[in-house]
Amino acid sequence: MKRTPRKPLQGLKIVVTRPRDQAAEMIAQLEKLGAEAVSIPAIRIRPIRPNPELDRAMSKLDKYLYLVFTSRNGVEIFFEELKQKGRDRRALRHLKVACIGPATAQALKLQGVKCGIQPRSFVAEALLAAFPRDLKGQRVLLPRAKEAREVLPAGLRGRGAKVDVIPVYESVPMRPAPRVPQDTDIVIFTSGSTVINFIGKVKIPKKTRIAVIGPITKAEVEKRGRKADIVAEKFTAQGLVNAIKKYIAATGAVAGNPGGKRA
After folding, report:
1. What distance in Å separates the CA atoms of residue 22 and residue 76, rounded to the nearest whole number?
2. Distance (Å, rounded) from C-alpha 149 to C-alpha 134?
3. How far, in Å, CA of 230 to CA of 210, rounded?
4. Helix segments in 131-191, DSSP class H
5. 140 CB contacts (<8 Å, ≥6 apart)?
6. What is the mean pLDDT of each run of 10 residues along the chain (263 residues)?
7. Phi and psi at residue 187, to the nearest 5°
8. Which of the residues 30, 51, 108, 137 has an alpha carbon 20 to 30 A from that of 206?
């Protein structure tokens, strides 16, 4: 009788800390590879409402040349507010739209908007490099998270742009603080905000490996005294799943077995 081939992540318990409404696709990918994927959200996304700053920006969209999105959340909340004002994508026809990452580009596509400036690397530094060197007097609208790095707006202002940074959502810690099962093999972090609201507030077993979506998230993990064992080469959810698969194939390592090897 033929034995069923062992799946690449079979026997692993992997905790996904993304907000619950954004975790389904990653969980499905992990389960397809044989893992037991557990959703333990570190945060939930809360739109900032009322938002008079955003109201003012939307009343003068014709004054901007660039519209910049750094996350799917920013896209969804921006267009929801635009719709509430009885407007749609046609109000953005004159704008050059820039974004970070395929998930953000896809969220824009669902709104009927093409991301015209999209770097191959999914970090603020790469997006900044994609802009013209001289932006003197040009206005940029950047709707984003309340908690975010200043690399992009500072860099654009350094090139002469007038940048309006509008916080449109915030990451709120889950209450009560979640618990990580002791037999967890890997905990996944997909953003700096998930790290900030998880490590130090939630006990992660020392033997548990940590997987992160990219260098910014890795830095947040290390800042808190833990090691990022697995770092995605491509900074996407699929890239992170692939990195976990590659790590396990190379090491066979899991937390729950003696010697850290799969049985």
Report:
1. 12
2. 22
3. 6
4. 151-158
5. 64, 65, 66, 67, 68, 156, 161, 162, 163, 164
6. 80 96 94 97 95 98 98 97 96 97 95 96 94 98 95 98 98 86 97 92 94 95 97 93 97 56 47
7. -115, 130
8. 30
Q: Which of 118, 107, 124 is nearest to 73 (CA)?
A: 107
Domains of the chain and any CATH numbers: 13-42+174-260 (3.40.50.10090), 46-171 (3.40.50.10090)
Containing 2, the helix (H) or strand (E) segment is none
pTM: 0.85
d(CA 7, CA 159): 50
Among 192, 186, 169, 179, smallest CA distance to 243 is for: 186
Paired tokens of 76: 């969804």
For the record, the structure tokens of 258 come out as: 């003696």
